[in-house]
Amino acid sequence: MWLANEWNDYKLKDCADGEKLEMWKSIMLCRPDPQAIWREKAAPELWKKADARYLRSNTGGGRWQFFNKKMPEKWTVNYKDLTFNIKPMGFKHTGLFPEQAVNWDWFSALIKNSGRPIRILNLFAYTGGATVAALASGAEVVHVDASKGMVTWAKENVISSGLGDRFVRFIVDDVKKFVQREFRRGREYDAIIMDPPSYGRGPGGEVWRIEDELYPLIEDCMKIMSDDPLFFLISSYTTGLQPAVLSYMLGTALKKFGGHVHSEEIGLPVSATGLVLPCGASGRWERK
Questions:
Q1: Which of 126, 159, 226, 264 has the most CB atoms at less than 10 Å from its CB?
Q2: Are 200 and 208 a contacting pair, CB within 8 Å?
């Protein structure tokens, strides 16, 4: 398992009974997590100090319950030299997946050690955690997401990290249509990052189902890879999409380039127990 264990401003304090207790700098949040199926809390007294808790609804969705009236509406956390804007939002999210830091470190080292300009396409790019990390490492980035609000948030993260002068294009679009247009335009990329949802809709109502759409999208991405690609990263939070499946897809699609494929679960260390909470999986291909 790949662990995101180099955070200072984020700590997973405890997890149990379908929830996790997280410290985001000075703010402690309690959020649902379906992986935490055990019942015993290792630090039960600590849970009483939560500033807010997300409560699921029996009819879907949910709401935040705020215990700290002085809790800010939004704040920032740092990962190494990167800065991200955090705020509790609908459906339990905060605008950042801290476990992805282990992937940021991986591809940042590849970019820095490549000794050449690297152009990256970030698909399903959300609030831009990977975009910010890639820009900080010296790459050019094209950031694509179907949500205008998430793209705006990504722009804020780039500015907060002091990277406003770096080359980045922000695109609000359906990722499938964008990749196909890039092929027709003759544009190429040295690396591709994608974090596809299990299900979603594009800005024009386009339907995305990961079991039907993911591999065809990877095949389309092969048409816009440069002749000397650096890496390809897929992250998945879809239950049942195992690391071995990610390896098989990447190994099949990228076999003409040679290189190396490795896929693992990604996880976060739990402070109260010394154990690890799994947080999805990632598949990595790199040209060696």
A1: 126
A2: yes
Q: What is the largest CA-CA distance in the chain?
A: 59
Q: Which residue has the higher pLDDT, 83 or 240?
A: 83
- For residue 199, count other CB atoms closer than 10 A to its CB: 12
Per-residue confidence (pLDDT) for residue 202, from 0 to 100: 75
Residue 118 predicted with pLDDT over 80: yes
Tokens of 12: 């997973």
Cα–Cα distance measured from residue 27 to residue 175, given in angstroms and rounded to the nearest whole number: 34
pLDDT at 239 > cutoff 90: no
Does the structure show a pLDDT above 80 at 206? no
User: 47-75 b/e with 16+ CB inside 10 Å = b?
Assistant: beebbbbbeeeeeeebebeeeeeebeeee
Residue listed under structure tokens 């260390």: 269
Residue 25 has pLDDT above 90, yes or no: yes
DSSP for the chain, written as a single string: -EE----SSEEEEEEETTEEEEEETTEEEEEE-TT------SSHHHHTT-SEEEEE-TTS-EEEEE--TT--S-EEEEETTEEEEE---STT--S--GGGHHHHHHHHHHHHHH-S--EEEEES-TT-HHHHHHHHTT-EEEEEES-HHHHHHHHHHHHHTT-TTS-EEEEES-HHHHHHHHHHHT--BSEEEE---SEEE-TT--EEEHHHHHHHHHHHHHTTB-SS--EEEEEE--TT--HHHHHHHHHHHTGGG--EEEEEEEEEEBTTTS-EEEEEEEEEEE--
Q: Which residue in this structure is represented by tokens 């999208």? A: 217
- Residues facing residue 264 across a β-bridge: 282
Q: What was the pLDDT predicted at 204?
A: 78
